[in-house]
Amino acid sequence: MLPAPRAASPARILPPSTGKYLLAAALTLLLGACAQQQVAVPVEAQPAEGAAPAHIATSEPAPRPFPIDTFYTLLVAEVAGNREQYDVALANYFHQAERTQDAGVAARATRIARFLNARRAALRSAQLWAELEPDDPEAQLAATAELTLAGDLESALVHAEKALKLGGDAPLQSLAATAVSNRELTEKVMPEFRRLAQVYPNNGEVVLAYAMMLRATEQYPEALAIVRRVQEQHPDLLDAPLLESHLLVDQERRQEAIQLLDKLVSIYPRESRLRLQYARLLIREDLALAQQQFAELVKLHPNDGNMILSLALIRYETDNLEAAKPLFERLLTLEQHESAAHFYLGGIAEQENDTPTAVTHYRKVEPGNDYVEAITRGTELLAATGQNNDNRQWFAELRQRHPDQSEHFYLMEAQLLTKHEQNREALDLVDQALAQNSESGRLIYTRALLNDKLGNATAFEQGLRKLLDKDPDNATILNALGYKLIEDETRHDEALQLITKALELRPDDPAIIDSMGWIQYRLGNHDEAVKYLQQALEKLPDHEIAAHLGEVLWVQGNREKAMAIWQQGMKLNPQSKIIPATLKRLQINESLEQHASDS
User: Fold this and answer.
1) What is the pLDDT of residues 346-381, one digit of tens each?
2) pLDDT above 90 covers what percent of the chain?
3) Deepest in the core among 90, 103, 203, 531, taking most CB within 10 A?
């Protein structure tokens, strides 16, 4: 990417050292232009008396002078460029390119527009430049590049072929890379790539581009044969073996690809593209060797954030935290991948039991892949250490920073409070959220569940009824209410009706199947209950379902199987409170651990 305006970079339109020269040259041209404005017909030297008229021979036509207003505009553009006022420079050059139809001005406008990443202006000026100088390969290549970026590959290929005919090196692989991102586009331009490969069979760039198209259409053997032929013709063209490695992976020949790249890396130890592909393949095969390759890449590119992050992640994943930590810290110094660096530095501090440092890093993670996880981890650390005020402040800041996501953060905070058995505080928080959005289904449902935890069955049912009034076919709500009503023996018929409707809506939902099994048990239909509960446990291995199935089997007299099911449930969730409570309610004194050893 080209540097942004006013960035400290050597890639300036005009270096500072050219300023005096520019001004001198500009004044010289200006004086010449003024003289031409004043004298309409040049004065020729008169021959001596009696001598023949003198004829002045020139090898090139005299340059066409610009009108004075055009010259002044271009002078302003150059001065603006020298002062790094690139937008002014571009505006003036672009306008004058279209006005004057001058190839040099169009070329200058194209270069400035590409420098600024001003794609529309770059495209128009590049096309104008190519039109005005059809025999200039640089102009054709500029038009090729801009048309490719604009997605007009058919036109890009026309200019690319012109560049090839003029002896240029057209970027056909770049065109192919753009084409293969879209299957329809690939099929559309494939014949043209095939034709160019036939016209220029000895041009490695052209032929490899065709091989890329073949790969995109899964014609792997033909593509591989072409790539290997290119390697014979152009042994120093490393794009060919790189593409071969991809084709081998496509055909599930990873070991061959690794062997190829291992050989090439030893021959070309400083070729980063080869080593990077080698390292990526090794991640799945040999993580230790992959780490060595990324370490070499970091040596070659000590300020490349992508390489540093890759090496740091491998070291983090292999629990080599001591070696990973300085790499993440280097990313912060380089101001690259800062959010990822803060996230993993937070993880390292967490594993070192340094809660303050971990929370500091997690709070610096910006929106992106790790954002929610960083918030979750950081607030959990604060909650575990009783720093509830810090959590409240953090969530309040998040809601202020992301007002459109305030409901989500209310729910996250309520879930955290519930996890730490602060149900009353969670209910107060949800009530606060509902004061801002009284119709939120998620908030109403969460409040109902919290009321249930607090023993307020009436408020629980009222909340679910409100949701069902809006959405009578919501299987989750139907099941939740039906399951709750099972507790009341006077409302079993109503519970059955609700659960039956939920099951009709979602017949494969294991939670609803479990509810159906449980209501059948409470109605005395034990065989039906076992059928449903076994089906639910097969679909979703869960300690609560195991508790239900074990109870029915125990009541049926199948006690060995019941104990085995409860053991299974405890393995699924060693912290389960439901299964021990079931054994206590059934007055079972036998220990699950003892039963397991006896078995």
Assistant:
1) 999 999 999 999 999 999 999 998 999 999 999 999
2) 68
3) 90
Token digits of residue 209: 């581009």
| Structure tokens, 81 | 């460029």
**77, part of any domain:** yes
Neighbouring residues of 228: CB distance < 8 A, sequence distance ≥ 6: 240, 244
What gap in Å lies between CA 475 and CA 491, rounded to an integer?
A: 19
Residue 200 DSSP symbol: -
pLDDT tens per residue, range 458-474? 999 999 999 999 999 99
**C-alpha to C-alpha distances, 537 to 269, 508, 512, 515, 571, nearest whole angstrom:** 56, 12, 12, 12, 14
Residue 111 lies inside a defined structural domain of this protein: yes
- Distance, in Å, from the CA atom of 156 to the CA atom of 185, rounded to the nearest integer, reads 13
- Residue pair 241/264 in contact (Cβ under 8 Å)? The answer is yes
> Tokens standing for 299?
């040596």
Q: What is the CA 443 to chain-centroid distance, rounded? A: 31
**Paired tokens of 51:** 């001598």
Cβ neighbours of residue 590 under 8 Å, at least 6 residues apart? Answer: 563
Q: Which domain holds residue 112?
A: 1-29+65-133
Instruction: Give me the amino acid identity at 383.
Output: A
**CA-based nearest residue to 282, from 306, 270, 265:** 265
Residue 536 burial class via C-beta count within 10 angstroms: exposed 0-12, middle 13-18, buried 19 and up: buried
Residue 529 lies in a domain: no
Q: How many domains does the chain have?
A: 1
Cα(448)–Cα(414) distance, integer angstroms: 13
The answer to whether 237 touches 169, Cβ cutoff 8 Å, is no
